């Protein structure tokens, strides 16, 4: 719709007006609006870190938290990371955003620790662009030093597609992180193209089974699908395993029976802002 497009082009402000072109489609226009709004969103304090519990399937104890960024734009409302992370990645804005998330999560964990709450590990997602920066490990170390958080309380999540870019550099970076005590997780496992040899070569602590495999677990049949194979593989590689996207009791029981100890999903709790996670963290279980 041309009217909407024109209106949105105006929203971008005078300087961006030359970007408007009648043949520009709505999708491209949306992207421009998003990009314009994303710029400066850190300085305007529009990001919030939510935390989702990672729990022991047998005891329901909270063993970790994953930090997940949220963007509350005054003009666009709550924008899902699935929408703005890819754009932030393309434009490079992911680097300052990612560093802000890392700092905020480390600060929050340290604050909870100082308040006497039994510390758990915080998992922070690193995008490909952020991970492949030359000085990524010094940025992380500096953040840990400044916030006073112990490296063993930080868990860095990267995806398979991040890990297969520049495999030799990736291994060295991971080894440097590992050597100071930071934990490494492979996120969304099974959706990318990493090979078994990578899994063996990288110093991984945890493999996170993507939620799509967990959704395949069907209560009515006993077919363990790929989940069984992935869990068996982590056992032989001596890596911990975490199942993502667990939504039903059946899925939880099924995974526990296959030997998976830790899970994350709506069954145990949605991602929540720090002040809402805090009481759960004090109690220690969900
Ligand atoms: P992810 O790292 O795989 O995070 C898990 C996603 O699954 C989260 O979506 C979480 O809210 C959602 N989820 C958790 N439990 C369930 C469940 O039981 N069912 C379903 N259907 N979904 C569940 P979210 O928060 O929207 O984030 C989406 C993706 O955006 C993340 O996937 C991650 O790749 C990226 N992301 C989020 N925060 C950051 C960040 O700070 N930095 C970077 N680089 N990426 C981030
Ligand atoms: Mg993740
Ligand atoms: Mg994931
Ligand atoms: Mg994902």
TrEMBL record:
The lineage of its organism: Bacteria, Pseudomonadati, Pseudomonadota, Betaproteobacteria, Chitinivorax. The chain holds residues 875 to 1160 of 1160 of the full protein. This is Diguanylate cyclase (GGDEF)-like protein/PAS domain S-box-containing protein. Signal peptide: none annotated. Residues 31-285 form the EAL domain.
């Amino acid at each position: 719709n041309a009217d909407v497009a024109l209106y949105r082009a105006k929203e971008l402000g005078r300087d961006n007006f030359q970007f408007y072109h009648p043949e520009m489609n709505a999708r491209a226009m949306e992207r421009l609006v998003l990009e314009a709004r994303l710029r400066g969103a850190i300085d305007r304090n529009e990001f919030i870190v939510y935390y989702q519990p990672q729990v022991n399937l047998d005891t329901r104890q909270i063993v970790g938290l994953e930090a997940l960024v949220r963007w509350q734009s005054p003009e666009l409302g709550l924008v899902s990371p699935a929408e703005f992370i890819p754009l932030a990645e393309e434009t490079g804005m992911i680097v300052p955003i990612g560093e802000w998330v890392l700092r905020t999560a480390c600060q929050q964990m340290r604050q909870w620790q100082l308040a006497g709450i039994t510390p758990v590990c915080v998992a922070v997602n690193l995008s490909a662009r952020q991970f492949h920066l030359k000085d990524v490990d010094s940025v992380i170390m500096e953040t840990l030093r400044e916030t006073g958080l112990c490296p063993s309380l930080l868990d860095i999540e990267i995806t398979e597609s991040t890990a297969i870019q520049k495999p030799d550099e990736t291994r060295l970076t991971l080894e440097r992180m590992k050597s100071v005590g930071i934990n490494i997780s492979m996120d969304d496992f099974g959706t990318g193209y990493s090979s078994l040899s990578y899994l063996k070569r990288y110093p991984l602590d945890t493999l996170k089974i993507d939620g799509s495999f967990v959704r395949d677990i069907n209560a009515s049949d006993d077919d363990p699908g790929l989940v069984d194979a992935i869990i068996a593989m982590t056992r032989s590689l001596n890596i911990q395993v975490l199942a993502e996207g667990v939504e039903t009791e059946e899925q939880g029981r099924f995974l526990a029976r296959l030997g998976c100890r830790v899970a994350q999903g709506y069954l145990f709790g949605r991602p929540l802002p720090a002040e809402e996670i805090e009481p759960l963290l004090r109690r220690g279980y969900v």
